[in-house]
Write a structure and sequence with these properties.
This protein is of the alpha+beta class and about 750 residues long. Among the domains are: about 325 residues, Distorted Sandwich (Beta-galactosidase, Chain A, domain 5); about 100 residues, Golgi alpha-mannosidase II (Immunoglobulin-like, Sandwich). About 20% of the residues lie in helices and about 30% in strands. The protein contains 14 helices and 36 strands. The strands form six sheets. Strands 1, 6, 7, 8, 9, 11, 12, 14, 15, 19 and 20 form an eleven-stranded antiparallel sheet that branches. The chain is globular. The termini are far apart. It binds alpha-D-galactopyranose. Alpha-D-galactopyranose binds next to loops.
């Protein structure tokens, strides 16, 4: 065995581990690597000079031995067009299309060749396998390892790459994608999600044509808002809910990302996803490893519905903090008071929270800052001491008072940020991301702290640690992030001689380091991720957070569309929905919509009319009875509000004995008198018998649904049930219970 191979094996621990079998190919024979989920296969194969190709991306074959023959059925002549199907396409040698990786070697050479060296496949548990493939540059001591983690049952794949070298000095990574996929299906339809503040996640589906369609962000502190790293790729025809082959995916990275969908000259699809290479050249020292973020996707041959359900189960079971756990319902004071509150006003709200029946009171922005009190969004951010005028007895007092009132207490922070009008800014200008020679540019009157700096990391950790140390009963954190990075420049990186082009990447790494520390010390306390509405909500941050805030837009009809769009990617247990005063819909409508995720309120509950109060209390009670189904059950999107005058969504308990169906009138232009057609249910047991009862009725109203009728699951899934949505009954919640 060659010496360098031997050393590499030792380094990787391959010789000691008995769990898996490394497969080595030193000859130029074809090596075929099938990466298999329950229903899908990605097949990698070497050619006669050991370059690695993606030769298959599609339904799994019954006979595993046949994967090696797939490539022979295709006749794409590489000589005309370069090679399109590289498993991880390098730049500067044979490749003529978009690379997955582009580097400058230590000696200044900008070319890269990658050849198959070895691979291994190991079973992590019954459902999970990890395939890793090492590709090496034959001329330089440089290699990448491609990782494919597969959850078979859920048909979910997570892909990432690790880059290492032992060249004489640092190399420069210019592009370093997480994944590089190739599909030869005919015709591809891509749904991406764009938006802006209070209109996040607006979908747009396009047929991909030859050339490049890229989706990216350059916001620095957050991935989402203008573009989102979530996408649906549909093979052969536009995406639909219950049929067709689809991929529902996300790049799990909390900063600048880039997704590239290139249709090549054979009309095949090349998908390259990773950190946005924009202004992000990264210097990698010999012996260090650069680990890319993950591309995560669910594959289905039965449409987006099944893909989402699988992604949701995966997220709850394997990814999200406390994904299979509980959540707290809450009353938030943001829209009830904005910055205008004091101790008395807040303690009075505790009683409202208790009367409403929620678990927790959440104190929002405005509780801190003394030299520069936080009475609006232009001052105080960074000075995390209680404002003595508003809260003379401090947070500790509020926590105690909340406990006395019989509820838990949570608090809002925005620890990565600073207002120029703050003591923190005066003391630590060097901690602020800004161009010293240029005028400052503000986003919501604030600037971003430089998380590449370990002192800033300590500061951010300290804010959370201090709150918990002083108030061990603190039961919830809302972690906000309201600004993007303008004037990207880090004094810390300059002082350390680190290239400025690492700022965007090291910022996100700095954030993860802080969150690692927080979770080491406070492993379970629920934390909501918020970013000026829905700027953050990716599967990397959701390892640390129990939930996220999808948008400041809580107008309930808009919200139905928004929650629908988020639900392609996220289980409802992670999306926080609050009842507010946005829009003209009645309290019942707003509460029903918010009940399709993690329920909260952001209203002055004490000032509601008597009937509204009665309704809200009962609705919280009902929510407590069905929340397990919404949080942990299977979601079926029944009627798409983009295609009908109503929207209908259904959550089904795993045992199929209970379900909740939400129906809303979304198009009042049509003046419908009653829903013409029944809503066809899904996910039930055809053999079981069910009764249907309407819940969340507003005081003084009566249901038009006959709860004495018994239906078979078969009937409900073929004929359905008419929810009788009318102009008088704009929101109808049905409970389906096995008889
Ligand atoms: C952001 C959040 C809001 C609220 C404010 C406070 O806009 O999205 O929910 O917390 O900040 O300033």
């Amino acid at each position: 065995m060659k010496k360098d191979l031997w050393n590499l094996l030792l380094k990787k621990g391959l010789l000691l581990c008995t769990l898996f079998i490394p497969i080595l190919s030193l000859s130029a024979q074809d090596v075929t690597i099938p990466i298999l989920t329950a229903n899908h296969a990605i097949v990698l194969q070497t050619d006669n000079i050991n370059r690695l190709h993606t030769v298959y991306f599609g339904k799994s074959l019954t006979n595993e031995n046949e994967y090696k023959s797939v490539a022979k059925s295709f006749n794409f002549k590489d000589s005309d067009a370069g090679i399109y199907d590289g498993a991880y396409t390098p730049a500067g040698t044979w490749n003529l299309s978009e690379p997955a990786i582009q580097i400058t070697h230590a000696d200044g050479n900008r070319s890269l060749e990658l050849k198959y060296f070895s691979h291994e496949q190991k079973n992590i548990d019954e459902n999970t396998t990890l395939t890793s493939v090492i590709l090496k540059d034959p001329n330089y001591p440089f290699h990448v390892t491609l990782f494919y983690k597969v959850w078979k049952k859920e048909n979910v794949i997570e892909q990432w790459t690790e880059i290492e070298h032992t060249e004489k000095s640092a190399i420069l990574l210019q592009k370093y994608a997480s994944a590089n996929l190739y599909s030869t299906t005919k015709e591809f339809y891509l749904t991406t999600f764009q938006g802006g503040y209070a209109k996040e996640m607006q979908p747009a589906e396009t047929k991909l044509v030859q050339g490049m369609r890229s989706v990216e962000s350059k916001l620095g502190t957050r991935a989402m808002l203008l573009q989102s790293p979530n996408f649906i790729l549909s093979f052969g025809k536009p995406a639909s809910e219950n049929e067709g082959s689809v991929m529902v995916g996300q790049l799990a990275w909390s900063g600048n990302f880039k997704l590239e969908f290139e249709i090549d000259s054979y009309k095949n699809l090349r998908l390259i996803a990773g950190i946005n290479p924009y202004n992000s050249e990264y210097s990698l020292a010999p012996g260090q490893t650069f680990k890319t973020p993950s591309l995560i996707y669910a594959l289905s041959n039965n449409g987006t519905g099944e893909a989402s359900r699988n992604l949701h189960s995966w997220a709850r079971k394997y990814r999200v903090l406390e994904g299979e756990g509980k959540r707290v319902t809450l009353l938030n004071n943001w829209e009830a008071t904005y910055f205008d509150f004091d101790e008395n006003k807040i303690t009075a709200l505790f009683k409202d929270a208790k009367n409403l029946g929620v678990d927790l009171f959440l104190l929002d922005d405005g509780w801190f800052g003394n030299k520069y009190p936080r009475n609006s969004d232009n001052a105080g951010l960074g000075d995390w001491q209680e404002n003595v005028k508003k809260l003379p007895h401090g947070i500790g007092y509020l926590v105690k008072e909340a406990t006395k009132a019989g509820i838990k207490f949570g608090i809002w922070i925005e620890p990565e940020m600073v207002n120029p009008k703050s003591e923190l800014y005066e003391k630590h200008l060097d901690w602020v991301i800004r161009q010293p020679e240029r005028p400052e540019i503000y986003y919501r009157n604030q600037l971003v702290l430089d998380l590449t700096n370990p002192e800033v990391q300590d500061h951010v950790f300290g804010i959370v640690d201090n709150l918990f140390t002083k108030n061990p009963e603190l039961a919830f954190i809302k972690w906000d992030c309201n600004a993007v990075i303008y004037n990207a420049f880090s004094q810390y990186l300059k002082d350390k001689g680190i290239p400025q082009s690492q700022l965007y990447v090291d910022y996100v790494h700095g954030l993860y380091k802080v969150l690692d520390r927080i979770r080491m010390k406070y492993p379970k306390v629920p934390m909501m991720l918020c970013s000026g509405g829905g700027g953050r909500g990716d599967y990397e941050l959701l390892k640390y957070f129990t939930e996220f805030w999808p948008s400041d837009d809580t107008e309930p009809i808009e919200r139905i569309f928004m929650q629908w769009n988020y639900s392609y990617f996220f289980p409802s247990i992670v999306t926080d929905n609050h009842v507010t005063n946005w829009g003209k819909q009645p309290l019942k409508f707003r509460t029903d919509v918010a009940s399709m995720g993690k329920l909260g309120f952001d209203i002055v509950a004490g000032k509601l009319s008597l009937n509204d109060k009665l309704f809200a209390k009962q609705a919280v009670c009902n929510y407590n009875a069905f929340k397990e189904i919404v949080w942990h059950g299977d979601l079926y999107r029944l009627v798409n509000p983009n295609e009908a005058e109503i929207a209908a969504l259904m959550f089904v308990e795993q045992a199929k004995s209970k379900a909740i169906v939400f129906n809303y009138l979304v198009n009042t232009r049509q003046k419908i008198t009653a829903t013409e057609r029944p809503v066809i249910l899904n996910g039930l047991d055809p053999q079981k018998k069910y009764i249907i009862r309407e819940i969340n009725l507003y005081p003084g109203t009566h249901s038009t649904i006959d709860s004495t009728l018994v239906y078979s699951g078969d009937f409900l899934m073929k004929v359905g049930i008419n929810p009788d949505v009318t102009l008088e009954r704009t929101s109808v919640v049905l409970e389906v219970v096995e008889k």
